[in-house]
Amino acid sequence: MTRTGKFLAGVFVALIAVAALFPSLLAPGSPLAVHPAEAFESPSLRHPFGTDESGRDIYTRVVHGTADSLTIGLAATGLGMGIAVVLGIITAFAPRWIDSVILRGLEVLYAIPTLLMALIIIAFTGPGTTPAIIAVGLSTAPGYARLIRTHLRTLVNSEMFDAATVLGHSTWRKVRNHLVPNTLTTLLALVTLGIGQAVIWASALSFLGLGTPPPAPEWGAMLASGRTYLHFAWWMTVFPGLAIVTVAAGATLLGRSVTRRST
């Protein structure tokens, strides 16, 4: 990544962090404050992103919605990655037949589209923010697990690991000294890439009415409420959609940068 790219990436991360942790610094108003007399105002100096059907400022809602959307993305990615790491460690040290059984199961689950699996899980758990986190996390776990399993199996079968075995190192010591240091960068890259994907899937569930319910300023829910008025109030969907695309694309670029640095 060039210096300009690194600078832009740093600015992007800083803005997202401020919007998520201190949204009032960028948008002092309340994302839930309604002003019926100002409903459907187009973008202007007073309302840079316009207003919605209740007169709520969309810029304020997009900024404050960063925390909601990123929380879901981070939590879902953490859940999926945690399951994947556990399965990866099991397959790395388990007998070959156990590894084969787990791998076949992961391949079957991986063949199911992520959104379809999330919808199936939501059918059992019911809609809401927490069910959306669980659904997205469980749906993305098989993909992560396959990647981590391959990475760990490569390390376990390496000469470095064989040398540690010959020297009499315990399994815990081999995991601590060899597996963990050589896996952290891979995990960081997967997490960074996964956050963007998780934000998209969580927004999709909210768009379908199965994630965070309105009037919370979650980007997917804002898209859903704005589609009814798309023919004359385009800003209600365009700006939340741009926020989703920007975060997903930014996270993907950062993840690829981390991946390139690790290779």
Automatic annotation (TrEMBL):
Keyword Cell membrane listed? The answer is yes
Task: Give the organism, scientific name.
Answer: Enteractinococcus coprophilus
What is the residue range of the signal peptide feature?
none
Q: Which UniProt keywords apply?
A: Cell membrane, Membrane, Transmembrane, Transmembrane helix, Transport
Tell whether rRNA processing is among the UniProt keywords: no
Q: Which residues form the ABC transmembrane type-1 domain?
A: 66-255
| GO biological-process terms attached to the record | transmembrane transport
For this protein, the record's CDD domains field holds:
TM_PBP2
Kindly give the Pfam families that the UniProt entry links to this protein: BPD_transp_1
GO cellular component terms listed in the entry, alphabetical order: plasma membrane
Specify the protein name.
Peptide/nickel transport system permease protein
Q: Where does this polypeptide localize?
A: Cell membrane
**Principal localisation:** membrane
TM spans (from-to): 70-94, 106-124, 130-148, 184-212, 232-254
Record family assignment: Belongs to the binding-protein-dependent transport system permease family.
Q: According to its record, how does it sit in the membrane?
A: Multi-pass membrane protein
